[in-house]
Specification:
Layout lengths: L1 H15 L11 E6 L10 E2 L6 E6 L12 E5 L7 E2 L1 E2 L18 E8 L13 E7 L4 E7 L8 E11 L1
Antiparallel strand pairs: 1-3, 1-10, 2-10, 3-4, 4-5, 6-7, 7-8, 8-9, 9-10
Amino acid sequence: MRRLLIAATLLAAAGCDDLSSYATDPGEVYRGTVVGVEEESVVRTGFDPGTELTMEFDPRRATSLTNPPGRITTSDGTFTAEPLEPVVAIAHDALSEYEIPLGSRVRNYVFVMRPTDGPLAGREPMVFLSLMSDDTIELRIVAGGGSQAGDYFGLFRISRQPE
């Protein structure tokens, strides 16, 4: 009986981490527009109003340093197929399970990007990615603190769509 209980517990735990349903298939991307479309916005810095973000993503590679879990492109030219680089230690930290009130987050990831062109070339913007229970993704991009020229902050609510 004890072995059966242990096996059932392990099986249930393994099932909770299957996030493959969030992976984009060939011909699919996650897409959405930056929050804060008005000219002056408290939740958007650096990104143009209406900037659209597209992302391919596979959470099964979320800690891979050899095969990026995703790539980000923005319509304003800030990013062009920029690979996400995992901050691997976060996967083993309670921060991966943080919850923002009313958020319904399933899992959180932190990535860094290292663009070589565009307005953030030579910088290391951070990406905070949350898988949501409604099969969408909330993605925040942060470069700098927001008080200097050239700092960026963008919140994107993105959903799976045809490429």
